[in-house]
Design a protein that fits this description.
Helix content is about 50%, strand content about 10%. By secondary structure, it is α/β, with parallel strands linked by helices. Among the domains are: about 55 residues, no CATH class; about 70 residues, Orthogonal Bundle (Helix Hairpins). The chain has a 6-stranded parallel β-sheet, sandwiched between helices.
Length: about 300
């Protein structure tokens, strides 16, 4: 297919991104680069929906639960992989629910110098959409690390985030010459709600509560960055007898639906994003993407 491709598979949680990414990677002989902020943590498996065959992926299980991760660290980890595969003439599929990670990698935001009006506008929109706590979570920053004044002052918070995004010294990053494409799976709202609920109940049936109990027994503190993943604290409350399992499931379903709504808000602003109808399941989505690639000018 000519020039190496870097294909992002995006979409709200439970939309089937991993299935599409794996089928697409198999068809293209590609590697999959994980762009999920919590699948990087060892031991946090069921609740983060880690793939069964992790040998297909890079950047899964690379950190201990107590280590911090951020969009900047992700880009620094992902760029050498993208460059290596591009040099080999190999395609890559970037897959994960952390839209900021995908955007930073494929749009090159890490390489901007100084104050950038587009970056400031994007951060302002994100702050308005997600709130201070939500945007800090996306950036991999714990609120415990920051003063209350900084969190309450929008301008100070935005400047803090700008500085995290942009290196203090000039840095051109690692060049990788792949054609970059982004696709998002479009799922009808009611279908997505059903998928979310069914997925969470499957996670519980697979032993999510027991996984969390094992993490706590091994000494992982609730303050660990990995425990910010959706659903893990309610499951920890179940494990410690503070919450019933049914109440925890209901809480996680509500939180996940809210998260999916925020993801869709984010995706509507994603540059150069192509939406693919997901009503027919995985195979039609993969076929559509492959046909788009073949029909495009990929020389």
């Amino acid at each position: 297919m000519g020039k190496p491709l870097a294909i992002a598979i995006m979409g709200p949680t439970a939309s089937g991104k991993s299935d599409v990414a794996e089928r697409l990677a198999a068809a293209l002989g590609a590697r999959i680069v994980n762009a999920d902020a919590f699948q990087v943590y060892r031991g946090f498996d069921i609740g983060t929906a880690k793939p069964i065959d992790r040998s297909l992926y890079d950047l899964i299980d690379i950190l201990d639960p107590t280590e911090s991760y951020s969009v900047g660290k992700f880009v620094r980890d992902a760029e050498p992989l993208m460059a290596c595969y591009a040099t080999e003439g190999r395609h890559t599929v970037v897959c994960g629910g952390s839209g900021l990670y995908v955007r930073a990698l494929l749009e090159g935001y890490r390489h901007m110098k100084g104050t950038d009006p587009k970056l400031r506008k994007a951060l302002e929109e994100d702050l308005d959409t997600f709130g201070s706590e939500g945007i800090l979570q996306r950036e991999g920053v714990s609120t415990a690390e920051l003063s209350h004044d900084l969190q309450r002052n929008p301008q100070r918070l935005l400047r803090f985030l700008e500085k995290r995004r942009m290196p203090s010294e000039p840095h051109d990053g690692i060049s990788w010459k792949s054609k970059r494409l982004k696709f998002a799976i479009d799922i009808e709202r009611n279908d997505l709600v059903c998928r979310i609920e069914a997925r969470i109940r499957r996670m519980v049936d697979r032993g999510w509560r027991e996984e969390v109990q094992s993490l706590l027994d091994s000494g992982v503190p609730l303050s660990a960055p990995a425990f910010r993943a959706i659903g893990y604290k309610p499951m920890a409350a179940v494990a410690t007898g503070l919450l019933s399992l049914d109440d925890a499931i209901d809480q996680v379903i509500v939180t996940t639906r809210q998260y999916a709504k925020r993801q869709l808000t984010w995706l509507r602003r994603e540059p150069q994003l192509q939406w693919v109808d997901g009503r027919g399941g995985t195979e039609p989505v993969v076929d559509h993407i492959l046909n788009t690639i073949k029909g495009g000018s990929n020389g």
